[in-house]
Amino acid sequence: MIAEKVKKSNIGVGIGIVLEIAGRVLTASGAPLIFLGIPILVAGVVIFIWGCFNYSEAKGYSRYLGFLGVASCIGLIVLILLPDKCKNGGPPSNNAGGPYGGQQPGSWPPPPSNPT
To answer: Where are the domains of the chain?
Structure first.
């Protein structure tokens, strides 16, 4: 996995879970605290999903797979169970070279050949 993304995902998932729990406790405690609990709960969900975005990127998948975080812990478990495409912190191994056999971005179309 990519270390930089793992660090961001740990921060996002950790803070998100804490804020979600705090928001749920505040909304369940009564009418005066609902107005404080709902924004905290929403912020926790958004931060948790951001952490899941980073976790899916750290494993070599599209960041949009992080929307599994909407399902909270179940989505995170699915992300954890996915195989790691970025072994040893490198780029995804099954995508190396792309469909054009290793051409660098921006090199298409190929330069014209000089028939001499």
So the answer is: 3-73
Q: What is the pLDDT along the chain (116 residues), one digit of tens a residue?
A: 888 888 999 999 999 999 999 999 999 887 788 888 999 999 999 999 999 999 999 988 988 988 988 888 899 899 889 998 877 766 665 544 444 444 455 556 666 677 66
Its pTM stands at 0.72
How far, CA to CA in Å, does 77 sit from each of 58, 67, 73?
A: 15, 13, 6
Both structure tokens of 21? 């729990």
**Is the distance from CB of 92 to CB of 60 less than 8 angstroms?**
yes
